[in-house]
Structure formats: C-alpha cells, structure tokens
Specification:
3 helices, mainly alpha
Amino acid sequence: MDTATLDTKKMEMFREILSIDDENILTGAIAYIRETKKSVVGQNPMSPPEGFMTGDEFEKRVKEELKQLYKEHGLLQ
C-alpha cells in the first residue's frame, strides 16, 4: 500500500471512531490528537500532604511490624 492509501484509510478510521462527517472538523481533531502535551509531572512542585508516608518509610514500617509480629509468635528469635 502506498502512503496516500494509508492516509485515506486512517482518515476513514478516525471518521468512524469519532463519528465526524465534516472534513474540516476531522482534520482539526486529528491535528489536536497529534499535538504533544506538556507533562503535568514537574510543572507544579509541591510537598507531600501532612501524614504522607513515602515508599521507603512504608517498607521500613512493614518490616518492623512483621519482625515484631514474628517475635511475638515465636517465629523469629
């Protein structure tokens, strides 16, 4: 298949998926879809909320609690 045929099939597919009959609206929608969006991550740096636990803190607490539980039941000396 050549490029023109693929482009035509792609436009037909978009038209069917988006249910758009107007060629101008369809072209605009495709152009909008192709635009790259800036990532939200890193745009608004903020500190974690009060009481937030990081992954490292969570892991440390779980290990401590498991060790304590194992000691209480005689599974760990």
